[in-house]
Specification:
The complex is a heterodimer of chains A (322) and B (363). With 322 residues, chain A is mainly α. Chain A contains 14 helices and no strands. The longest helix of chain A has 30 residues. The chains are: A mainly alpha (322), B mainly alpha (363).
Chain lengths: 322, 363
């Protein structure tokens, strides 16, 4: 494998890791506050559809992004109502949200655009286009660093950079602000937070809301940046890979970045089976690479490689003492 | 403690939940510019208006009984087996191997062999998540989700490899003639009038009914069932009574996986008569809705499975005759799961208040 191919692979890794990373950080906020969320997949899918639909109709990708975030937030609200207000089962609520999104997107897309459950192709301003970072063109011929800067770092859509910046931002919010401390506390011991006079319900709704916003961006990225339009089931299990990455990262922001890059790299490899064959000399089943994130996560969960301990109050509705 | 009479809990709440789901679904149909009333009429005609429609409804219901029972038994031990989809896929692998490599003399023996194969393969696929939950404390919901994806990959691996039939399609060869299960058409053929013509419902439906009875007896009439239920009510109390959590988790999940796997005798041996990719088509997930609606009781599961069989066949008819896509059924399924599962308290709380007020008024 030559240098140029390697750069191409890493470039693809970054592009494929972005939706995983956004969804993973979304799950991180929710689960750190004690709300399990297996509905990441559904929220991404709903956001992907509405962002593509609004972008196609209005011609503006930014309106599309807003609409996508709105769709994801609406589902978050349902999840919050079910799991916080009505103290229902968070896992069942997540399952319901996944199916709701899978069904509604196709039903609405079909009656709106009549193209077999997809939206029209997006082009021009209705998509997020790559941005050239300053001097990328000029530095292209500098050995080693030039191509790295030109190929790998420059030339992504803005959402890729947003996702990368969300990592330190998440770390800062969770570990350096009062809100973050309370948010983590509400996931470990909500009774203590309640005793301190802070509203458990409000904190959890805030966390679920942040989760909705990030899932919305992830979904919009799928339909308006990675691809040009919505197709049925386009999230293709990414929400679950993000969930796997979250466990792999043991609910920590920087590790989430590494896990998502690793899983993104696996996805990039399964797209380029010719490259792998050249490097290691034999053919690897693409299916195997696709499920490797899940297998790795099960191994981690089994506790053979370190132990993944979830937030202690995760999954349990909080009942205030009377 | 019991604010409401039992009938309200068992009948009224599911009914209100499904009514809410139905109203919202009707609004969706209205929003996309179709008439909900006409849609309902079309669904009833398509699914229940002929023995052909009934044949499909019962075929789908058979799938959902198995997956619904699988989720139910796990619910009794307060385990959420979301992996019915993967277990049913791997159960299909078991059925395919049994049917392809053993020369069966008669369908009844083949049915027995396939049922055992499906159950063993399905149970084996549930065993690893169960073991990790029991011994390592890793959350069973997450591991069973992961195992759904891994199952799809395993199946794909075999269908493009060792079990592949000649040709382009990733599928096994057709099973031998001797493994053909009698369909309802074969069974209800009275000379000049043939019922259920061309419908896939087959003898497996009766196996599913037997499974309902067997599971009812297991849960409420045996020591094991008692242990499973007490473990589900309170793990610490069960432990104190000398019930081993490891044993209960393992046994419950093995039974659950076996039931989900046994769905494969209906769709793989009974209908397709070969194993194809994505043979389960989401029936494993519908089991969740069925178990929630049926309140984890085998009889409730039977009724809920019939309802979903009707929805499935009716939805196919809708997609055929109107512009409403088949995915509408997924929306209805999601709403049922939402209202009967996650938003249960939303229905329950006002109802409890109502019954409380009625009781006060009486005294």
């Amino acid at each position: 494998m030559d240098f140029a191919t390697l750069l191409q692979m890493l470039d693809a890794t970054l592009r494929l890791a972005t939706p995983l990373l956004l969804a993973c950080l979304a799950g991180l906020f929710s689960e750190r506050a004690g709300i399990f969320d297996i509905g990441l997949e559904g929220k991404m899918l709903a956001a992907a559809f509405l962002s593509a639909a609004i972008a196609a109709v209005s011609g503006s990708v930014w309106l599309g992004l807003l609409a996508g975030i709105g769709a994801s937030l609406a589902l978050s609200l349902v999840h919050g109502l079910a799991s916080i207000t009505f103290r229902g089962n968070q896992l069942i609520s997540g399952v319901a949200i996944n199916f709701l999104a899978a069904g509604l997107t196709v039903v609405i897309a079909q009656s709106w655009f009549r193209q077999g459950g997809r939206t029209p192709q997006l082009s021009g301003d209705a998509r997020f286009n790559p941005i050239e970072l300053p001097f990328a063109e000029a530095l292209q011929n500098v050995p080693i660093l030039g191509p790295i800067y030109y190929e790998l770092i420059s030339g992504h859509t803005i959402l890729v950079y947003v996702a990368l910046l969300t990592v330190p931002l998440t770390w800062w919010i969770l570990f350096r602000t009062r809100f973050g401390l309370r948010l983590r506390a509400v996931g470990e011991n909500p009774a203590a937070v309640d005793t301190a006079g802070v509203s458990v319900v409000w904190l959890r709704f805030a966390a679920v809301g942040i989760c909705g916003i990030l899932c919305g961006i992830a979904g919009a990225y799928l339909a308006t940046a990675l691809q040009a339009g919505f197709v049925k089931d386009m999230s293709a299990g990414r929400g679950f890979i993000a969930l796997a990455a979250l466990i792999f990262a043991k609910w920590r922001p920087w590790y989430a970045l590494y896990a998502c890059l690793l899983f993104g790299f696996l996805q990039a490899m399964s797209l380029r089976s010719d490259v792998i064959e050249n490097v290691i000399g034999f053919q690897v089943n693409g299916q195997f690479l696709d499920v490797l994130p899940y297998i790795l996560t099960v191994v981690i969960l089994a506790g053979f490689v370190g132990k993944a301990i979830p937030p202690r109050a995760g999954g349990e509705p909080y009942v205030k003492e009377r | 403690m019991d604010v409401m009479p039992k009938w309200a809990d068992v009948i009224l709440i599911p009914l209100i939940s499904i009514l809410l789901a139905a109203i919202l679904s009707a609004l969706v149909i209205l929003a996309i510019g179709e008439s909900p009333w006409a849609a309902l009429k079309l669904m009833v005609d398509g699914a229940l208006g002929s023995t052909y429609g009934w044949g499909y409804t019962l075929y789908y219901a058979t799938n959902f009984i198995f997956t619904g029972l699988a989720v139910s038994i796990a619910f009794h031990a307060r385990l959420f087996n979301i992996g019915g989809e993967g277990q049913a896929l791997i159960g299909g692998l078991g059925v395919a191997i049994i049917c392809l490599f053993i020369p069966w003399p008669h369908w009844s023996l083949a049915l027995l062999g396939a049922a055992i194969g499906a159950a063993v393969f399905g149970a084996a696929w549930a065993a690893i998540p169960a073991f990790l939950q029991a011994k390592r404390g890793s959350h069973i919901v997450i591991t069973t989700i992961m195992f759904n994806f891994i199952a799809a990959a395993v199946l794909n691996y075999f269908l493009i490899g060792a079990l592949k039939a000649p040709g382009m399609e990733p599928a096994t060869p057709k099973f031998p003639e001797a493994t053909h299960l009698p369909s309802f058409q074969d069974m209800f053929n009275f000379g000049e009038t043939t019922f259920f013509r061309g419908a896939p419902a087959n003898v497996t439906f009766f196996v599913a009914l037997a499974a309902c009875v067997a599971l009812w007896a297991l849960i409420w009439k045996t020591r094991l069932g008692y242990e499973i239920r007490s473990f589900g009510h309170s793990e610490s109390a069960a432990k104190y009574a000398g019930i081993s959590p490891t044993k209960i988790i393992m046994v419950t999940m093995l039974i659950s996986g076996a039931l989900a796997g046994m769905m494969a005798i209906n769709n793989v041996q009974g209908e397709a008569e070969r194993l194809v990719l994505n043979a389960v088509e989401g029936a494993g997930f519908i089991g969740i809705a069925v178990a929630l609606m049926g309140r984890s009781h085998p009889f409730g599961v039977l009724l809920a499975a019939l309802l979903f069989g009707f929805l499935y066949q009716g939805g196919a008819e809708l997609a055929l005759w109107t512009s409403i896509p088949r995915e509408l059924i997924i929306v209805i399924q999601a709403l049922v799961i939402l209202f009967t599962g996650a938003l249960d308290n939303m229905v329950r709380m006002p109802l409890e208040r109502l019954f409380l007020a009625m009781r006060r008024a009486k005294t």
